[in-house]
Design a protein that fits this description.
It is a single chain. The protein is built from 11 helices and 8 strands. It is an alpha/beta fold and 310 residues long. The protein has a single domain, classed as TIM Barrel.
Length: 310
Protein backbone atom coordinates (compact mmCIF):
# COMPACT_ATOMS: atom_id res chain seq x y z
CA UNK A 1 0.00 0.00 0.00
CA UNK A 2 1.37 3.42 -0.91
CA UNK A 3 0.24 5.08 2.33
CA UNK A 4 1.81 2.31 4.42
CA UNK A 5 5.01 2.60 2.41
CA UNK A 6 5.13 6.34 2.98
CA UNK A 7 4.64 5.91 6.72
CA UNK A 8 7.32 3.23 6.85
CA UNK A 9 9.76 5.50 5.00
CA UNK A 10 9.11 8.34 7.44
CA UNK A 11 9.61 6.04 10.41
CA UNK A 12 12.84 4.72 8.97
CA UNK A 13 14.05 8.27 8.47
CA UNK A 14 13.20 9.21 12.04
CA UNK A 15 15.04 6.23 13.44
CA UNK A 16 18.13 7.10 11.42
CA UNK A 17 17.88 10.82 12.09
CA UNK A 18 17.23 11.57 8.42
CA UNK A 19 14.12 13.70 8.83
CA UNK A 20 16.01 16.88 7.86
CA UNK A 21 19.44 18.01 6.82
CA UNK A 22 20.78 18.46 10.35
CA UNK A 23 23.26 15.99 11.73
CA UNK A 24 21.36 15.54 15.03
CA UNK A 25 19.04 12.51 15.04
CA UNK A 26 15.40 13.56 15.53
CA UNK A 27 14.73 10.93 18.18
CA UNK A 28 18.21 10.81 19.68
CA UNK A 29 17.07 11.29 23.28
CA UNK A 30 13.91 9.16 23.40
CA UNK A 31 12.52 5.88 22.17
CA UNK A 32 10.42 5.78 19.01
CA UNK A 33 7.49 4.09 20.78
CA UNK A 34 7.08 7.06 23.11
CA UNK A 35 7.13 9.47 20.18
CA UNK A 36 4.48 7.45 18.31
CA UNK A 37 2.14 7.11 21.29
CA UNK A 38 2.34 10.80 22.11
CA UNK A 39 1.14 11.69 18.60
CA UNK A 40 -2.12 9.73 18.85
CA UNK A 41 -5.00 12.04 19.71
CA UNK A 42 -8.52 11.44 20.98
CA UNK A 43 -11.75 13.13 19.97
CA UNK A 44 -15.48 12.46 20.20
CA UNK A 45 -18.25 12.66 17.61
CA UNK A 46 -21.21 14.97 18.21
CA UNK A 47 -23.59 12.10 17.44
CA UNK A 48 -22.32 10.27 20.54
CA UNK A 49 -24.74 12.64 22.27
CA UNK A 50 -27.48 12.44 19.67
CA UNK A 51 -30.22 11.74 22.24
CA UNK A 52 -29.36 14.84 24.24
CA UNK A 53 -28.93 16.92 21.09
CA UNK A 54 -32.21 15.62 19.70
CA UNK A 55 -34.00 16.46 22.95
CA UNK A 56 -32.62 19.99 22.93
CA UNK A 57 -30.54 19.35 26.05
CA UNK A 58 -27.20 19.84 24.27
CA UNK A 59 -26.03 22.02 21.40
CA UNK A 60 -22.72 22.33 19.60
CA UNK A 61 -21.36 24.69 22.23
CA UNK A 62 -22.22 22.52 25.23
CA UNK A 63 -20.80 19.58 23.25
CA UNK A 64 -17.50 21.43 22.92
CA UNK A 65 -17.61 22.19 26.64
CA UNK A 66 -18.10 18.48 27.33
CA UNK A 67 -15.13 17.60 25.12
CA UNK A 68 -12.97 20.05 27.04
CA UNK A 69 -14.20 18.70 30.40
CA UNK A 70 -13.23 15.19 29.26
CA UNK A 71 -9.74 16.47 28.38
CA UNK A 72 -10.14 15.43 24.75
CA UNK A 73 -7.81 16.69 22.05
CA UNK A 74 -10.48 17.38 19.47
CA UNK A 75 -14.14 17.51 18.49
CA UNK A 76 -15.50 15.43 15.61
CA UNK A 77 -18.49 17.27 14.14
CA UNK A 78 -21.29 16.01 11.95
CA UNK A 79 -22.65 18.88 9.87
CA UNK A 80 -26.19 18.17 11.09
CA UNK A 81 -25.08 18.89 14.66
CA UNK A 82 -24.45 22.53 13.81
CA UNK A 83 -27.26 25.01 14.44
CA UNK A 84 -26.83 26.29 10.89
CA UNK A 85 -24.07 26.75 8.33
CA UNK A 86 -24.07 30.54 8.29
CA UNK A 87 -20.77 32.33 8.79
CA UNK A 88 -21.71 34.02 12.10
CA UNK A 89 -22.46 30.64 13.68
CA UNK A 90 -19.39 28.96 12.19
CA UNK A 91 -17.19 31.81 13.42
CA UNK A 92 -18.46 31.27 16.95
CA UNK A 93 -17.96 27.49 16.76
CA UNK A 94 -14.41 27.95 15.51
CA UNK A 95 -13.56 30.50 18.18
CA UNK A 96 -15.09 28.44 21.01
CA UNK A 97 -13.06 25.41 19.94
CA UNK A 98 -9.91 27.52 19.82
CA UNK A 99 -10.56 29.00 23.25
CA UNK A 100 -10.95 25.49 24.66
CA UNK A 101 -7.80 24.19 22.97
CA UNK A 102 -9.76 21.74 20.82
CA UNK A 103 -8.98 20.81 17.23
CA UNK A 104 -11.86 20.17 14.86
CA UNK A 105 -10.68 16.65 14.16
CA UNK A 106 -13.08 15.85 11.31
CA UNK A 107 -16.23 17.14 9.59
CA UNK A 108 -18.77 14.53 8.55
CA UNK A 109 -21.67 14.51 6.10
CA UNK A 110 -24.03 11.59 5.40
CA UNK A 111 -23.98 11.17 1.63
CA UNK A 112 -25.80 8.37 -0.23
CA UNK A 113 -24.46 7.78 -3.72
CA UNK A 114 -25.42 4.16 -4.28
CA UNK A 115 -29.19 3.98 -4.32
CA UNK A 116 -30.22 6.34 -7.10
CA UNK A 117 -28.57 8.16 -10.00
CA UNK A 118 -31.22 10.87 -9.77
CA UNK A 119 -30.25 11.65 -6.18
CA UNK A 120 -26.52 12.07 -6.85
CA UNK A 121 -26.59 15.80 -7.78
CA UNK A 122 -28.37 16.62 -4.51
CA UNK A 123 -25.90 14.49 -2.56
CA UNK A 124 -22.96 16.22 -4.26
CA UNK A 125 -24.48 19.55 -3.26
CA UNK A 126 -24.53 18.32 0.35
CA UNK A 127 -20.88 17.34 0.03
CA UNK A 128 -19.94 20.74 -1.40
CA UNK A 129 -21.64 22.53 1.48
CA UNK A 130 -19.81 20.30 3.95
CA UNK A 131 -16.49 20.99 2.22
CA UNK A 132 -17.08 24.72 2.60
CA UNK A 133 -18.07 24.34 6.26
CA UNK A 134 -15.15 22.05 7.03
CA UNK A 135 -12.66 24.41 5.41
CA UNK A 136 -13.99 27.35 7.41
CA UNK A 137 -13.85 25.41 10.69
CA UNK A 138 -10.34 24.17 9.97
CA UNK A 139 -11.21 20.48 9.78
CA UNK A 140 -8.41 18.48 8.11
CA UNK A 141 -10.70 15.91 6.51
CA UNK A 142 -14.23 15.45 5.16
CA UNK A 143 -15.91 12.14 6.03
CA UNK A 144 -18.42 10.79 3.50
CA UNK A 145 -20.47 7.64 2.85
CA UNK A 146 -21.06 5.88 -0.45
CA UNK A 147 -24.22 4.14 0.74
CA UNK A 148 -25.94 0.98 -0.49
CA UNK A 149 -27.21 -0.61 -3.67
CA UNK A 150 -30.99 -0.32 -4.20
CA UNK A 151 -31.11 -4.13 -4.46
CA UNK A 152 -28.56 -6.99 -4.46
CA UNK A 153 -28.84 -7.46 -8.23
CA UNK A 154 -27.80 -3.82 -8.80
CA UNK A 155 -24.63 -3.88 -6.71
CA UNK A 156 -22.27 -3.54 -9.69
CA UNK A 157 -24.23 -0.58 -11.05
CA UNK A 158 -24.31 1.06 -7.61
CA UNK A 159 -20.56 0.53 -7.17
CA UNK A 160 -19.78 2.30 -10.44
CA UNK A 161 -22.16 5.14 -9.60
CA UNK A 162 -20.49 5.45 -6.21
CA UNK A 163 -17.02 5.52 -7.76
CA UNK A 164 -17.96 8.36 -10.08
CA UNK A 165 -19.65 10.37 -7.32
CA UNK A 166 -16.76 9.85 -4.92
CA UNK A 167 -14.29 10.94 -7.59
CA UNK A 168 -16.34 14.08 -8.17
CA UNK A 169 -16.44 14.71 -4.41
CA UNK A 170 -12.67 14.33 -4.26
CA UNK A 171 -12.34 16.82 -7.11
CA UNK A 172 -14.58 19.32 -5.30
CA UNK A 173 -12.51 18.84 -2.17
CA UNK A 174 -9.27 19.30 -4.09
CA UNK A 175 -10.44 22.63 -5.45
CA UNK A 176 -10.98 23.86 -1.89
CA UNK A 177 -8.03 22.06 -0.31
CA UNK A 178 -10.11 19.55 1.66
CA UNK A 179 -9.14 15.85 1.55
CA UNK A 180 -12.14 13.51 1.20
CA UNK A 181 -12.28 10.15 2.97
CA UNK A 182 -14.76 7.31 2.47
CA UNK A 183 -15.97 5.73 5.70
CA UNK A 184 -16.94 2.07 5.78
CA UNK A 185 -20.56 2.02 6.86
CA UNK A 186 -22.10 -1.30 5.79
CA UNK A 187 -23.84 -1.45 2.40
CA UNK A 188 -21.27 -1.19 -0.39
CA UNK A 189 -18.44 -0.94 2.18
CA UNK A 190 -19.06 -3.98 4.38
CA UNK A 191 -15.55 -5.47 4.11
CA UNK A 192 -11.98 -4.31 3.82
CA UNK A 193 -11.96 -5.66 0.27
CA UNK A 194 -14.89 -3.41 -0.59
CA UNK A 195 -13.00 -0.38 0.69
CA UNK A 196 -9.85 -1.26 -1.24
CA UNK A 197 -11.91 -1.68 -4.41
CA UNK A 198 -13.30 1.85 -4.05
CA UNK A 199 -9.86 3.26 -3.26
CA UNK A 200 -8.40 1.72 -6.42
CA UNK A 201 -11.35 2.58 -8.68
CA UNK A 202 -11.69 6.21 -7.57
CA UNK A 203 -7.95 6.67 -8.00
CA UNK A 204 -7.84 10.35 -7.05
CA UNK A 205 -4.94 11.84 -5.02
CA UNK A 206 -7.41 13.77 -2.86
CA UNK A 207 -9.35 10.61 -1.98
CA UNK A 208 -8.63 8.44 1.04
CA UNK A 209 -10.28 5.94 3.36
CA UNK A 210 -11.60 6.42 6.89
CA UNK A 211 -11.64 3.43 9.21
CA UNK A 212 -14.77 2.73 11.29
CA UNK A 213 -14.23 -0.11 13.77
CA UNK A 214 -17.96 -0.78 14.01
CA UNK A 215 -18.95 -1.39 10.40
CA UNK A 216 -17.16 -4.42 9.01
CA UNK A 217 -18.74 -7.84 8.64
CA UNK A 218 -17.77 -10.54 11.12
CA UNK A 219 -18.19 -8.54 14.32
CA UNK A 220 -20.84 -9.63 16.80
CA UNK A 221 -23.16 -7.20 18.54
CA UNK A 222 -25.45 -4.38 17.43
CA UNK A 223 -25.23 -2.38 14.19
CA UNK A 224 -22.75 -3.08 11.45
CA UNK A 225 -23.17 -5.40 8.44
CA UNK A 226 -24.09 -9.05 8.92
CA UNK A 227 -22.82 -11.43 6.24
CA UNK A 228 -23.40 -15.14 6.70
CA UNK A 229 -20.22 -17.11 7.29
CA UNK A 230 -18.02 -14.19 8.34
CA UNK A 231 -16.23 -14.30 11.69
CA UNK A 232 -14.04 -12.10 13.84
CA UNK A 233 -11.08 -13.27 11.75
CA UNK A 234 -12.70 -11.57 8.75
CA UNK A 235 -13.50 -8.50 10.81
CA UNK A 236 -9.95 -7.93 12.04
CA UNK A 237 -8.56 -8.71 8.60
CA UNK A 238 -10.72 -5.90 7.19
CA UNK A 239 -9.26 -3.53 9.79
CA UNK A 240 -5.78 -4.60 8.75
CA UNK A 241 -6.56 -4.01 5.08
CA UNK A 242 -7.70 -0.43 5.61
CA UNK A 243 -5.44 0.66 8.49
CA UNK A 244 -2.48 1.57 6.30
CA UNK A 245 -4.61 3.89 4.16
CA UNK A 246 -6.55 5.79 6.79
CA UNK A 247 -5.96 9.23 8.27
CA UNK A 248 -8.77 8.97 10.84
CA UNK A 249 -10.15 6.11 12.91
CA UNK A 250 -13.61 5.99 14.46
CA UNK A 251 -13.67 3.84 17.60
CA UNK A 252 -17.20 2.56 18.21
CA UNK A 253 -18.70 1.74 21.58
CA UNK A 254 -21.98 -0.16 21.96
CA UNK A 255 -21.86 -1.89 25.33
CA UNK A 256 -18.97 -0.54 27.43
CA UNK A 257 -18.59 -2.23 30.81
CA UNK A 258 -17.93 -0.47 34.12
CA UNK A 259 -14.31 0.17 33.05
CA UNK A 260 -15.23 1.41 29.58
CA UNK A 261 -14.09 -1.77 27.81
CA UNK A 262 -16.24 -2.49 24.75
CA UNK A 263 -17.89 -5.91 24.79
CA UNK A 264 -17.79 -6.53 21.03
CA UNK A 265 -14.41 -5.05 19.98
CA UNK A 266 -10.93 -5.83 21.34
CA UNK A 267 -9.34 -2.39 21.29
CA UNK A 268 -5.98 -3.68 22.45
CA UNK A 269 -5.89 -5.71 19.24
CA UNK A 270 -7.13 -2.72 17.22
CA UNK A 271 -4.35 -0.56 18.66
CA UNK A 272 -1.75 -3.19 17.75
CA UNK A 273 -3.04 -3.11 14.16
CA UNK A 274 -2.77 0.68 14.06
CA UNK A 275 0.70 0.71 15.59
CA UNK A 276 1.86 -1.87 13.07
CA UNK A 277 1.25 0.68 10.28
CA UNK A 278 2.56 3.63 12.35
CA UNK A 279 -0.82 5.35 12.54
CA UNK A 280 -0.50 8.68 14.33
CA UNK A 281 -3.78 10.50 13.78
CA UNK A 282 -7.04 10.95 15.66
CA UNK A 283 -9.11 8.23 17.28
CA UNK A 284 -12.70 9.46 17.29
CA UNK A 285 -15.00 7.97 19.92
CA UNK A 286 -18.52 7.19 18.70
CA UNK A 287 -20.94 5.98 21.36
CA UNK A 288 -24.04 4.16 20.08
CA UNK A 289 -25.25 2.38 23.19
CA UNK A 290 -28.49 2.50 25.16
CA UNK A 291 -27.01 3.93 28.35
CA UNK A 292 -27.19 7.65 29.08
CA UNK A 293 -24.41 9.31 27.09
CA UNK A 294 -23.15 11.46 29.96
CA UNK A 295 -22.51 8.29 31.96
CA UNK A 296 -21.07 6.09 29.21
CA UNK A 297 -18.89 8.46 27.17
CA UNK A 298 -16.55 9.45 30.05
CA UNK A 299 -15.85 5.75 30.71
CA UNK A 300 -15.10 5.21 27.01
CA UNK A 301 -12.68 8.15 27.07
CA UNK A 302 -10.83 6.87 30.12
CA UNK A 303 -10.62 3.38 28.62
CA UNK A 304 -9.24 4.63 25.30
CA UNK A 305 -6.63 6.74 27.09
CA UNK A 306 -5.45 3.56 28.82
CA UNK A 307 -5.20 1.41 25.70
CA UNK A 308 -3.51 4.25 23.79
CA UNK A 309 -0.69 4.22 26.35
CA UNK A 310 -0.04 0.47 26.34
Amino acid sequence: MRQHANRSAIVAGLRLGLGDSSSTPIVQACSFDIVLTSMLRLSCLTLSYQNKIGAGKMDIFSFLTSCRALDLDGADIHINSLMNTGRPHLKEVRRRALDMGLSISCLGVSTEYGRSAEAVPKELHKAQEAIDVGMFLGAPLLRVFVGSAPSPDKTKEAFQRGVEALRKTAELGAEAGMPVALQNHSGLTSTGGDMLAFHKAVGHPNFSLLLDTGHFAGREGPNGPKIAGTTYNDYYHSLEQVASLTQFVRVKFYEPDSTGREKHIDYSRVMNILRSVHYNGFLGIVYEGKETETQAVPRCVRYMRRVMKV
